């Protein structure tokens, strides 16, 4: 069968290579192959007149009166000598066990292919058509019809004799009969009729449109689509008729069924045959010889079209002009179209040729795409339908696509497709790499090479790296970064890079790449040396990742020159690997770097670098004065005398004032503020912080002859010193700026203080009253006394066992209880008693609140 399909593909090109749409981009719907083998030999000596298709075999009739049974490849399986003249029609029942044959000399034979028993009759006129009941083999009546001048129904009666009935006559020769289920459709010179064999009623008469055409030259084509749909083609007209059940209320004397024409339209050419294809139609056309719009060589070639019927027109889906043998000599009546039920197989029969048309499968679709050089679509179609394709291989299609892209010069796309097409085939990968090398396009394929679990030989990767190293340093560096070091021989590549550096020793790209190669090779010291030389940002990552702290002890200055912040953070984060003493020792000759390191160390922990605080005083004074005062405030290990000496040498007044105050010399500190800074606000703030009356006296004494200072004092000392003391000491007649405003502020501050005191007094009185009321309510509550309570003096039960006897109990507010006789005599205040226990504890709980007597 595969050989037949291969031959068919070649023949399909033969049939359609001269079609009207030779260069069309629209894919054909059908493919063609010539029915050969035994058929070829038959048609060389004879000519085909008719053919019938069964799903198991074919039955071919010839002009010399022979009938051949063929398999689907065209091989002859049986031969029957029926007549010496043309076989007009062959009919098979659904089982394929019985055949009906009629010929031009009036012979009609109906017999079993396996029994040869049946009906044999000779008529005195030509019999054009014969049709067996679809269930002829199973039926008891063995019905069939013949058509000549009359439509005759033959059936076997209970005596096993043949009974003949005339179903129709008088409208000329019958040229076609099609029997489906209980419906018989036939065509004569007037039109098409349908007869219901079940109800024995003729149910319709479809008149023919092209009455000017000779029925014998342009015969009617009939085809049942299903049990109720008949397709009629005659001349250039097509009608689709649907048999429907008539409503019971409308019947009267009418047949129980009627026919509705659901579609009727005209075609461009004469119809030689019809066949259904899903909801579409396959039509075989005989092309008019006098068509003006066709080229000469196409005029007599039959066309096979697929059309989509619409109610009043049709839409052409595809159209193929077929080059059958001797097509120039054929007439419309010489062509027939037969189809296999349930299969998309269509047989075009002509006197000297039989062509099989079939729907194109996925392999054919891919063939067409490849022919049109639509490789990407072909590859996609093959990938989607890889389980169904038989003649194609996805990888071979992919290779054809890659070859096509290379031929076009689209090397990038070709290389990209290699990933998808070559997959895990190492041999194909290496072949492609060498091909790209031959055409000078190794760069294009480099980024798509396998680099995961699937890998090529190291020599392949090294070849590409050497190619890049010759022409593209940046591309070489990119591959080194992207490719795992295990893909190639690292030492060989290092040597190659070293050789290139001899010619260009300062090339940053090559140096950076060499450092990465050293890293892959675990020669971190050499990589670190290159990174430091280049001041590369990845140096810190390299140190951290590979724990190279032992290697950087003598390179701390280089690291800090490159990036102080990152270097210091790294050193402080890894104090366990690089001690502070070691870092300070390395930075001793670079005090500005040492200060940065110690400053960050101090910020992290005020106590960790305490032994360097004395050195830090000079470093802050030299390189970072704004942080000197915060350092002096926060440090508890800084020698104050040393700090004071440094600050005085450099005339740092604020820092000196702080140190003097911290050392207890507040008067000297205040004096410096007043004399050197001349900042009364700062002096007042300093006096407030110290809260020392003598300092306030010194401040007033120093300010008394300086009007601006007096103004500042008047505005700020109201809450710390009595302003009257300052006002009394102001000399009479001294002009003081903003004196009125200052006095008003003093008065406002005084009024505010009075208001605050009154408010506090009111709150205090209200709280005292509330608490007194609460205490009173508490003391007025009753106290439960029962047999569980004891006397706090004698420790006996507070209540007597005999409640009938008189007793007296005293209960204090503190909840201590006594027998009255156990209490000592009244104290210094007559009539007032106190709890012995609470009095001993000096708690003074008050006098007794309850005295119980009986």
Automatic annotation (TrEMBL):
<dbReference type="InterPro" id="IPR045111">
    <property type="entry name" value="Vps41/Vps8"/>
</dbReference>
<dbReference type="InterPro" id="IPR000547">
    <property type="entry name" value="Clathrin_H-chain/VPS_repeat"/>
</dbReference>
<keyword id="KW-0968">Cytoplasmic vesicle</keyword>
<dbReference type="InterPro" id="IPR016902">
    <property type="entry name" value="Vps41"/>
</dbReference>
<dbReference type="InterPro" id="IPR011990">
    <property type="entry name" value="TPR-like_helical_dom_sf"/>
</dbReference>
<dbReference type="InterPro" id="IPR057780">
    <property type="entry name" value="Beta-prop_Vps41"/>
</dbReference>
<feature type="domain" description="RING-type">
    <location>
        <begin position="791"/>
        <end position="839"/>
    </location>
</feature>
<feature type="region of interest" description="Disordered">
    <location>
        <begin position="1"/>
        <end position="31"/>
    </location>
</feature>
<dbReference type="InterPro" id="IPR001841">
    <property type="entry name" value="Znf_RING"/>
</dbReference>
<dbReference type="Pfam" id="PF23411">
    <property type="entry name" value="Beta-prop_Vps41"/>
</dbReference>
<keyword id="KW-0072">Autophagy</keyword>
<dbReference type="Pfam" id="PF23555">
    <property type="entry name" value="zf-RING_Vps41"/>
</dbReference>
<keyword id="KW-0813">Transport</keyword>
<dbReference type="GO" id="GO:0030897">
    <property type="term" value="C:HOPS complex"/>
</dbReference>
<dbReference type="InterPro" id="IPR036322">
    <property type="entry name" value="WD40_repeat_dom_sf"/>
</dbReference>
<keyword id="KW-0967">Endosome</keyword>
<dbReference type="GO" id="GO:0030136">
    <property type="term" value="C:clathrin-coated vesicle"/>
</dbReference>
<feature type="compositionally biased region" description="Basic and acidic residues">
    <location>
        <begin position="1"/>
        <end position="13"/>
    </location>
</feature>
<feature type="repeat" description="CHCR">
    <location>
        <begin position="568"/>
        <end position="712"/>
    </location>
</feature>
<keyword id="KW-0862">Zinc</keyword>
<dbReference type="GO" id="GO:0005829">
    <property type="term" value="C:cytosol"/>
</dbReference>
<dbReference type="InterPro" id="IPR057779">
    <property type="entry name" value="Znf_RING_Vps41"/>
</dbReference>
<dbReference type="GO" id="GO:0006623">
    <property type="term" value="P:protein targeting to vacuole"/>
</dbReference>
<dbReference type="InterPro" id="IPR015943">
    <property type="entry name" value="WD40/YVTN_repeat-like_dom_sf"/>
</dbReference>
<comment type="function">
    <text>Plays a role in vesicle-mediated protein trafficking to lysosomal compartments including the endocytic membrane transport pathways.</text>
</comment>
<dbReference type="GO" id="GO:0009267">
    <property type="term" value="P:cellular response to starvation"/>
</dbReference>
<keyword id="KW-0653">Protein transport</keyword>
<keyword id="KW-0863">Zinc-finger</keyword>
<dbReference type="GO" id="GO:0031901">
    <property type="term" value="C:early endosome membrane"/>
</dbReference>
<keyword id="KW-0458">Lysosome</keyword>
<dbReference type="GO" id="GO:0005765">
    <property type="term" value="C:lysosomal membrane"/>
</dbReference>
<keyword id="KW-0333">Golgi apparatus</keyword>
<keyword id="KW-0963">Cytoplasm</keyword>
<keyword id="KW-0479">Metal-binding</keyword>
<feature type="compositionally biased region" description="Acidic residues">
    <location>
        <begin position="14"/>
        <end position="26"/>
    </location>
</feature>
<dbReference type="GO" id="GO:0034058">
    <property type="term" value="P:endosomal vesicle fusion"/>
</dbReference>
<dbReference type="Pfam" id="PF23556">
    <property type="entry name" value="TPR_Vps41"/>
</dbReference>
<dbReference type="GO" id="GO:0005794">
    <property type="term" value="C:Golgi apparatus"/>
</dbReference>
<comment type="similarity">
    <text>Belongs to the VPS41 family.</text>
</comment>
<dbReference type="GO" id="GO:0031902">
    <property type="term" value="C:late endosome membrane"/>
</dbReference>
<dbReference type="GO" id="GO:0016236">
    <property type="term" value="P:macroautophagy"/>
</dbReference>
<protein>
    <recommendedName>
        <fullName>Vacuolar protein sorting-associated protein 41 homolog</fullName>
    </recommendedName>
</protein>
